[in-house]
Amino acid sequence: MDIIKTENLIYEYKRRDEEGNIEGIDRAIDNVSLEVKEGDFISILGANGSGKSTFAKHLNAILVPTEGTVWVDGMDSKDEEKLLSIRQTAGMVFQNPDNQIIGQVVEEDVAFGPENMGIPTEQLRERVDEALKTLGMMEYSKKSPNRLSGGQKQRVSIAGVLAMHPKCIVLDEPTAMLDPAGRKEVIRALRALNEVEGITIILITHYMEETIYSDKIFVMNKGKIAMEGTPREIFKHVEELEGYKLEIPKITLLAHELKKKGIDIPECVLSDKELAEALKKLI
Ligand code: ADP
Ligand code: MG
User: Fold this and answer.
1) Nearest CA to ligand 1 atom 23
2) Which ligand has the minimum distance to the alpha carbon of residue 46?
3) Are 199 and 193 in contact (CB under 8 A)?
4) How far apart are the CA of 28 and the centre of ligand 1, in A?
5) Residues 6+ apart with CB under 8 A from 196
6) What DSSP assignment string belongs to 53-117?
7) Strand order of the sheet with strand 2-16?
8) Same domain, residue pair 227 and 259
9) Residue in 92, 8, 45, 30 with CA at minimum distance from that of residue 207
10) Ligand 1: which residues within 6 Å by Cβ?
11) How far is the CA of 280 from the centre of ligand 2 (A)?
């Protein structure tokens, strides 16, 4: 079954004047239909303002559609009785780890979500330790989150969501505020969660290079799905991607330029290792 399915999803923000009268309507999501299979690693790639966050907020019923339908593990997001169940199925991680961490001590912070779900104390310990171990943060369990690096803080946020045992984790630009080392650390953790724990990952990002491990990429532009496919299918359309204001990874650009100059390398190169292999074959 699809863990996430949207059908003709439309979302409009209403602009109001000082008296609260509706002044205009901005369509942020424009007729999006997509399906995500359970266990997949999905990336949603798009420039600023393309509608990524508005879309993400539909996956855990923070927003409900203006038109169309969103199902999370078969539950209609408009069904208020399913709200808790939906939020437990699809956990959310946001951009700024400082806004998400509330505990004074790492383990306390990770316990917060499952505790609020009513998980009994004896199971809580187990869940927190398991989540911290999975994210490689066990040795920090008694530390203050304030002392952690950005990448570590974000891993604590992810552990907090994981401790609620979601089937799916939606991350809205989780690396946008991190340095390159922190970004790598978070992406590595997400790949492990997907491959080892089988959790569906929906990674929202504007960094193309973070999407190369995905099973599938959806490119958003002006509230619509402009492209969808595997990284290899998507990355070969360099000019189109540039048209969506995406920054193309240097290695992809280089390979693209070489190809245009008539050098016989594969149509799509995702990593420097691949490019090196391709060039070696020519010598
Ligand atoms: P992204 O996350 O890709 O940057 P958003 O979903 O935040 O995109 O925004 C999509 C569009 O919706 C943008 O044009 C933005 O200005 C508009 N928008 C976002 N949030 C609001 C809001 N709270 N009120 C009005 N318009 C909004
Ligand atoms: Mg956003």
Assistant:
1) 13
2) 1
3) yes
4) 6
5) 134
6) HHHHHHTTTSS--SEEEEEETTEETT-GGGHHHHHHHEEEE-S-HHHH---SSHHHHHHHHHHHT
7) 22-37, 2-16, 67-72, 75-76
8) no
9) 45
10) 13, 26, 28, 46, 48-54
11) 40
- Ligand 2: centre distance to CA 198 (Å): 26
Would 42 be classed as within a structural domain?
A: yes
Residues 185 and 282 in one domain: no
CA-closest residue to ligand 1 atom 10: 51
Q: Which residue has the tokens 């104390």?
A: 121
The pTM assigned to this predicted structure is 0.95
Specify the ligand 1 atom closest to the Cα of 48.
4
Residue type, 277: E
| Residue 278, Cβ density class (10 Å: 0-12 exposed, 13-18 middle, ≥19 buried) | middle
Confidence at 228, pLDDT banded by 50, 70, 90: very high
CB-facing half-sphere around the CA of 133: CA atoms within 13 A:
8
Per-residue pLDDT reduced to its tens digit, 43-94 = 999 999 999 999 999 999 999 999 999 999 999 999 999 999 999 999 999 9
* Same-domain status, 54 and 161: yes
* Count of positions (residues) in the chain: 283
Q: Are residues 102 and 192 in the same domain?
A: yes
Domain count, the chain: 2
**Alpha carbon distance 47, 147 (integer Å):** 32
| Residue 280 belongs to domain spanning | 249-283
Would you tell me how many other CB atoms lie within 10 Å of the CB of residue 52?
Answer: 23
The DSSP result for 134-150, as a single string, is: HTT-GGGTTS-GGGS-H
